[in-house]
Amino acid sequence: MPQKHLYEYAVIRIVPRVDREEFINAGIIMFCKKENFLQTKIYFDKQRIKILFPGIEDDHINHIQNQLIAFENICNGTAKNTAIARLDAPSRFRWLTAVKSTIIQTSKVHPGLTENCQNTLDCIFKQMTGE
User: Fold this and answer.
1) What percent of the residues of the chain are helix, what percent strand, and what percent coil, each to the nearest 5?
2) Helix, coil or strand: residue 129
3) What's the pTM?
């Protein structure tokens, strides 16, 4: 029987106007220490943001997209010019999921058990983003 491993995940949210606390789900970040798994899966749809947040400027949308790219690069450890990206995977996960008042936020961290981290990430991503 395959062994199940404890994992943690958080929903990545876009919050264009932090003062209103309105958001849309944009992806998932998932961590499993036992499998040395830290990945993020992001869906960014400019049209969806424009529909849900009328009046948002293109510059603001481009800024959001750049922030999501930076989030993903830090998660993957590929943003080597940043101190956070050079941390180990557990530390990057904790830093990325810490409570923030920024355009890119995450939900509370949720635990679970999985036999396959990638399949679980894909499933949660589909449930939370509809993609």
Assistant:
1) 40, 25, 35
2) helix
3) 0.91
